[in-house]
Amino acid sequence: MRVRGRLTWGRRSRAGAALAALLAGVVPPAVLPTPSAAAGTAAAGTPVCQVRDDRLREISGMVATDDGYVVVNDGADDEARRRIFFLDQRCAVVRTLSYPSRPRDTEDLAIGRDGTIWVADIGDNDRSRPTVAIWRLAPGTDKPVLYRLAYPDRPHDAEALLLDADDRPLIITKGGSGTVFLYAPTVALRPTATTALASVGQVTLPTTNTSNPFSFLGRGVITGAASAPDGRRVVLRSYADAFEYDVPDGDVVAALTSGTPRITPLPDEPQGESITYSRDGRSLLTVSESADQPAGTRPTILRYPATAATATAVRPTDSVDAVAPTAAPPAAEEVGGAGDRTWLLAAGAGTLLALLALAGVLRWRHTARR
User: Fold this and answer.
1) For residue 210, is it within any domain?
2) What is the CATH number of the domain that holds 219?
3) What domain count does the chain have?
4) Residue 36: predicted pLDDT
5) What's the pLDDT score for residue 89?
6) How many distinct helices (H) and strands (E) make up the chain?
């Protein structure tokens, strides 16, 4: 989902300067500790092609195919944008498919080994949907089939979808404070029934310092996911970074919950919500929304090496802000609101309170020295 506006903070005191620096993505070393492990040097991706179709300004999901790409917008009200778009290798739209009924909030795509396209209709900013959905488009067909799913506990906002070795869908919640949750169907999907989801694990994300439009808040959420063509690697992305996990035995859940990710920075993408592997598995491809960007800005597919020399393997527990695997769900998972900015504010509330307390101490110490 689109995030409108940016968070800013500024004060003239030394304490306020520390706060402003943190929210700008710079951690003053004299005030706050530095993570013991961080992503490598943040280099911008290499442009592949530019999407010039005006219907595609809120791209939230993408997969690579042998002859191009498939993309979807997030929950657009405009019917012309509420489609599955097929692009050629130069990012030109070559055809589109409509849904047989109106989707609620399409947020990600996945592609099976047989070429089946899975559309994740799982966005829920207000956390109010009684069910979410997945659309399945089999090869050679032009009508996606709808499958409804229900969480076992409460509604969640989610923007990422993976497939396991058996093409079972795996939903990754968006999170908000560095911990995200995994849900999978308990039985085979049926188009005429609502399938129960089960909680199958959680993932604690490493902390990085990668610059992005939402500062530290953008580093603690998951906005997209993808599987390598051979199924031996998967990647999760935030607004700032890609976290790549090895899947040596085909168990995606085990890889995510107990594996050690390699981090590839995705610096300063305007609003990066999409990621996929190239068909040869050698690259990570991303594309960002361009809505609310300067006039003339177009979504551009960027390429990053999937095994970049600068990527660093990091254990979640190495990061100073990581949440223990047994921690309760983050506050952002409980907060409803009108738009993504609500969860961004909720996710950062605890951190901001702590910083305000720190600001008070610093201001008091500064006054006491006068």
Assistant:
1) yes
2) 2.120.10
3) 1
4) 32
5) 97
6) 4, 21
Q: Tokens for 278, please give them.
A: 């190239």
Give me the mean pLDDT over the 241-259 stretch.
96
Residue 23 belongs to a domain: no
Instruction: Kindly tell me if the per-residue pLDDT of 87 is higher than 80.
Output: yes
What is the reported pLDDT for 76? 64
Residue at 29: amino acid letter: P
Average pLDDT on 280-303 reads: 92
In a domain, 24, yes or no: no
Pull the structure tokens for residue 23. Answer: 């929210």
